[in-house]
Every structure is written in structure tokens, then in C-alpha cells.
Amino acid sequence: MPRSNPRVTWLVVDTAANRAMIGASPGGVLGERMGIQVTEASPERVIGTMPVEGNTQPYGLLHGGASCVLAETLGSIGATLHGATVDRPFPVGVDLNATHHKAVRGGTVTGVATAVHRGRTMATYEIVLSDSAGERVCTARLTCLLRSA
Q1: 72 in catalytic set
Q2: Is position 1 within any domain?
Q3: What is the DSSP letter of 128?
Q4: Which pLDDT does position 15 carry in this prediction?
Q5: 92 vs 130: CA distance, rounded Å
Q6: How many CA atoms lie within 13 A of 30 on its CB side?
Q7: What is the CATH number of the domain that holds 84?
Q8: Domain range for residue 106?
Q9: Which residue has the higher pLDDT, 19 or 34?
Q10: Which of 11, 77, 85, 92 could form a disulfide with 42 if both were Cys (CB 3.0 to 4.6 A apart)?
């Protein structure tokens, strides 16, 4: 049974169903292991953070795959919340692409997922990841197919 996450600002209709969809660990076991924290969630925009420490590749830089996990987590949460409004609350990622602009060695990465398209069967989000100084380090796009129960 998912726990309530008091760190999340729920901008959508605050229902038990929405909290159950997202739960206390928005990124599931992987997101929890990577330290992902969601601070704001609505169908239009989702914001979250992830520490660089523990998510690096052998050269000490933020792993590109870790950036993709943060991006997909945030976009999927937005798609889940949007899907609930069209009776299709189960998003399935069908496309994820990411461009890595700058290396990051420490601190926290913040991601902002913004809806680009919110339809009845598909949702697309642009996710911008920034370092602790506010500089863009990655731009990603996630498209999800919205499935019903």
C-alpha cells in the first residue's frame, strides 16, 4: 500500500486515488534508490530533484542513464495525473530521447517536466534538467501511450 508523500505539492485535485497512483516513492524502487524527490506534481508540470552523488559513471560525472531515469520519472508522473482526467491513468513510455549538454560532478540536479501535448491516448513532456547553479545540463522528451484499467 503506497504511503502518502508529504514532500509533494499536489496541484491537481487532491484525491486518495491520485496519491495512490504516485505513492511515497514516485520513481518506484529505482527512483528511491537514486534519491529522486518530487516537489510539485500536476498534469501540466512536475518538478523533482536527484542527487548527483551515487548516480555517477566511473569518471565521476552524472551518468546519462541517471538523467534519463529522472526525466522519465517526472514525465510519467505528469502523464499519470493527466491520464486520470481522461480515464486512462496508466501511461506506458513509447519514446524517450535526451540530449546531454553539460557534465555535472556534484550537487543536485533539478528536473522540470512540462506538458507539450496532453491528448486522450498520448501525452508528451519536455523535461529540462539543471544543475545546482541553474545551468541546463540535459533536455529530454518523453511520449507516453495512455492506457485504461
Answers
A1: yes
A2: no
A3: E
A4: 52
A5: 25
A6: 10
A7: 3.10.129.10
A8: 9-147
A9: 34
A10: 11
Separation between Cα atoms, residue 125 and residue 117, nearest integer Å:
7
Q: What does pTM read for this prediction? A: 0.86
Which range among 23-27, 44-48, 131-135 shows the weakest confidence by mean pLDDT?
23-27
Question: How many residues make up the chain in this entry?
Answer: 149
Which are the contacts of 15, defined by CB distance < 8 A and separation ≥ 6?
none
Whether 115 is covered by a domain: the verdict is yes
With a CB cutoff of 8 Å and minimum separation 6, the contacts of 104 are 52, 61, 62, 131, 137
Looking at residue 134, its pLDDT comes to 98
Total of domains in the chain: 1
User: In which element (H, E) is residue 81 found?
Assistant: helix 64-85
Residue type at 15 in one-letter notation: T
Q: Give pLDDT tens digits for 65-85.
A: 999 999 999 999 999 999 999
